[in-house]
Specification:
Elements: E1 4-8, E2 17-22, E3 25-32, E4 35-40, E5 55-56, E6 59-61, E7 68-70, E8 76-78, E9 87-88, E10 90-93, E11 96-99
Antiparallel strand pairs: 1-11, 2-3, 3-4, 4-9, 5-6, 6-7, 7-8, 10-11
Length: about 110
């Protein structure tokens, strides 16, 4: 695995997401229940940034049409999205968040 620094942990408040670019990918780093997640920052339905949506109940909502994606699996939990988005391994090292975009946790190839 190849982890790259994504952001400072303090930049991602509880139940919010932060959009970052790591290598060739736009990633939404989100916090919920003191866990940190990394998910492709692109809704599979409308191609808008998920990092601009609301984080709740371990999901992130697409602000445009309301699709929700599970932060752990990338699977849509609400229509209109039907396709999952990529999720990435995360490590918190001290006060920083590191993400590996060379590996996906759910086998979905990021676009």
């Amino acid at each position: 695995m190849t982890f790259e620094r994504a952001c400072a942990l303090a930049e991602v408040p509880e139940d919010e997401a932060l959009g970052v670019t790591i290598g060739a990918y736009d990633v939404a780093v989100a916090r919920h229940d003191d866990e940190v997640f990394a998910i492709q920052d692109l809704c599979s339905h409308a191609a808008v940034a998920l990092s601009e949506g609301e984080v709740a109940d371990c999901t992130v909502e697409c602000w445009l049409h309301g699709s929700r994606f599970d932060l752990r699996t990338g699977k849509p939990t609400g229509l209109p999205a039907t396709e999952p988005v990529a999720t990435f391994p995360v490590e918190v090292r001290g006060t920083d968040v590191y993400v590996d975009t060379t590996t996906t946790l759910n086998g979905v190839t990021p676009s």
